[in-house]
Amino acid sequence: MEMSEGIPVLFFFPLLEEPDSGVITIGEVTLDTSKYTKKEEYQLRQQTAMVFQNYNLFRNKTALENVTESLVANKKMSKKEAETYGLALLNRVGLSAQAKQYPVTLSGGQQQRVSIARALAVEPHALLFDEPTSALDPELVGEVLQVIRELAKQETTMVIVTHEMQFAKEVANRVVFMEDGKILHEGTPEEVLSSTTNARMNQFLKSIN
């Protein structure tokens, strides 16, 4: 399975579970899932950044500090350089005014946007989203989806697990429907999310509509 940089996609990332077979290519790193070392796994993971459904922010650090932590620790930026870049990323997700606030003072939608800015900080070849709106109140979902829409417009490669079907239809160029670890249907959003000959897919679409 190959992911071309700069194309928004929608499917499940195999290394979140132990894979049975296949080849994964992200950026310039390729991993044969039938036989790989911890070093190869680490190299592949360095090509990605994860956005969790429950934010996973450091509660004792401000929004800006959450974004700059990896820049200082891993990219060896100076604190000043990291703060300048971190503020630019927070501005990108509409949160520059909240830079000095702690997570406890932010709404769920704002926390998730900080999480997205933090993921962008490491400049990954692919952003991985695990149900990014499932922990949010309905009125906060839109602000997070809008940030992801903007990333898609900028041709950011994204791997998103979601139940937001209308959103998937808008931003994805490829959709994979999975159940119990098996791919049941895949194709363009129109092919997968419209009427289909796949009975299980039809059942799912009816249940969410």
UniProtKB/TrEMBL annotation:
<dbReference type="InterPro" id="IPR050086">
    <property type="entry name" value="MetN_ABC_transporter-like"/>
</dbReference>
<dbReference type="Pfam" id="PF00005">
    <property type="entry name" value="ABC_tran"/>
</dbReference>
<dbReference type="InterPro" id="IPR017871">
    <property type="entry name" value="ABC_transporter-like_CS"/>
</dbReference>
<dbReference type="GO" id="GO:0016887">
    <property type="term" value="F:ATP hydrolysis activity"/>
</dbReference>
<feature type="domain" description="ABC transporter">
    <location>
        <begin position="1"/>
        <end position="205"/>
    </location>
</feature>
<dbReference type="InterPro" id="IPR003439">
    <property type="entry name" value="ABC_transporter-like_ATP-bd"/>
</dbReference>
<keyword id="KW-0813">Transport</keyword>
<dbReference type="GO" id="GO:0005524">
    <property type="term" value="F:ATP binding"/>
</dbReference>
<dbReference type="InterPro" id="IPR027417">
    <property type="entry name" value="P-loop_NTPase"/>
</dbReference>
<dbReference type="GO" id="GO:0005886">
    <property type="term" value="C:plasma membrane"/>
</dbReference>
<protein>
    <recommendedName>
        <fullName>ABC transporter domain-containing protein</fullName>
    </recommendedName>
</protein>
